[in-house]
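Exam revision sheet. Question 4 asks you to relate a sequence to its structure. Input first:
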Amino acid sequence: MKKMVFLLCLFSLNFGFAQNEILFDEATELYNNGEYSKAIENYKQILENGQHSASLYFNLGNSYYKQNAIGPSIYYYEKALLLSPNNEEIKNNLRFAENMRLDAIEEMPKTELSKLYSAVIGMFTFDQWAYLAVALVFLFVMAYMAYYFLGTANQKRAAFISGIFALVLGVLSILMAYLNFQSFKSNDPAIVFSKEVNVNAEPNNNSAPVFTLHEGTKVNVLEELDDWKRIRIADGQTGWLEAENVRKIKDF
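Answer key, structure tokens:
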């Protein structure tokens, strides 16, 4: 009976993947034919089926970009970049989409050390750093075993040095994974979807507006209260806006 249930689950899983692959191929053909709305429907159906990937979000971003939908295109490019942070094609298309925004917000200046730190820990996602750490620890174990089984002194020396090198890199990868995860938790980015929205000093409609944002602007959500979100923009200004005006990038 358990074997039968397992086979049914395996069949369902394979069928789901096959269906998503068909939808993806159809969406790509629709996109190439200029039928962007229909392509978007297919891509979103794949998301509803529980599958997501950098390529899927990237294609969604491209489809919305072709329709001049600033907010959704930037939103999906950002989601794709979150899953594939070193993908130059995603970064390039994101820059094109960002050029369509009305808001030109200057980022707060960073020190060279801060830029270097962000670049290093951002080379991979935290789970990719963790996978790298596991691989390096495995290499350390293999080198440790080789040290005892190899015959000559030169071979033992090479195995010892390789093992220590792999262990040090493994520990550094674990540290990078931890720092990246802390950075991931401390940031809660979102994209403005409304054409124009006032950001207020307090979480109510009677509060005075502090500044105005437009579609496609990236913000960082600091806290939430009822139907309001307190956000910060790149230049450091903060304020409250109604939650319906933004969509969080990390919502998968």
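Marking note for examiners. Helices lie at 2-32, 36-48, 54-66, 70-83, 88-98, 112-121, 126-149, 153-186.
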